[in-house]
Amino acid sequence: MSANSSRAGQLLLQASACISWKQDVEGAVYHLANCLLLLGFMGGSGVYGCFYFFGFLSAGYLCCVLWGWFSACGLDIVLWSFLLAVVCLLQLAHLVYRLREDTLAEEFDLLYKTLCLPLQVPLQTYKEIVHCCEKQVLTLATEQTYAVEGETPINRLSLLLSGRVRVSQDGQFLHYIFPYQFMDSPEWESLQPSEEGVFQVTLTAETSCSYISWPRKSLHLLLTKERYISCLFSALLGYDISEKLYTLNDKLFAKFGLRFDIRLPSLYHVLGPTAADAGPESEKGDEEACEPAASPPQATPTSLQQTPPCSPPPAATNFPAPPSRARLSRPDSSILEIDDFPSYFPQFGFSGKVAAGRIP
């Protein structure tokens, strides 16, 4: 066995082009360079894996440059090691530039963690959505209006990032919009891409607010091109509108002590102005109210019912009759027709302001 090993060694030495082998080993710089190269080639994937990989390779090739200059005294060793070190350093610089370029602003990063990360939205998809709004954060000063009823066109979709916005109609408060809620989701959903319209409510900033806004045409283009983003916006907008509807239903419950069916198209008139706010005309109504007359209709959780003449209000209301001077003025059932109101939210198959989540 030992004879075979010695013979194999002699064959290797005879086949080698080296005239003589060095008896001493290379210096510490050479071994350090190889250790750094070994660690570099053990790097993983991803951005941080690339940093690890090219960082150790750069250090290893720089050590090879030092070894070739001071110990091996070979110009080719120095040149090749220097070239490889420069390439690795350039790749590191490119990674830093890309990482800095892809970094989101603080507002968009917080928005992603709050709204999209729980839904497991890929970061690249979120960047496409942010790119559609041109990465701009807009602001509203206190008491500055975002939209004016009957004047502002519906040409964008906005999401509130901070502050609080008050929604009103005809000077009557409807509800608030809080951070990470859409400011005009009912208006957005009420129109087809080819249609145009104006706001039916007024949105006013109660505090200093910041928001992002997507232009209508650009966002429709993105939703048409990317099915995943279209499904994402449908889910977010549907949830936002349902939250507004339930908030308004809670407001009705606080006022009347009843849970109303939020799909009623004429529920808006249940919360009409009181007789005391109606001016001189309400006084005539108060005088007529003293005489026996038909009781006004009461809203029930599922339908609007008429009460026969000379009958007291339904017991379901559960609140005492107010004095005659403060009687609530509610319209007769003959004028509570669906056709009297604009078709504000046609995709749900019913009309009226309640459909858009804008009940005063």
From TrEMBL:
Residues 26-251 form the POPDC1-3 domain. One of its GO terms (molecular function) is cAMP binding. It comes from Theropithecus gelada (Gelada baboon). Residues 275-332 are annotated as: Disordered. Pfam families: POPDC1-3. This is Popeye domain cAMP effector 2. InterPro entries: cNMP-bd_dom_sf, POPDC1-3, POPDC1-3_dom. GO terms for biological process: heart development; regulation of membrane potential; skeletal muscle tissue development; striated muscle cell differentiation. Residues 309-323 have a biased composition (Pro residues). Belongs to the popeye family. GO terms for cellular component: sarcolemma. Keywords: Membrane, Transmembrane, Transmembrane helix. It is a multi-pass membrane protein. It is found in: Membrane. Its main location: membrane. Coiled coil: none annotated.
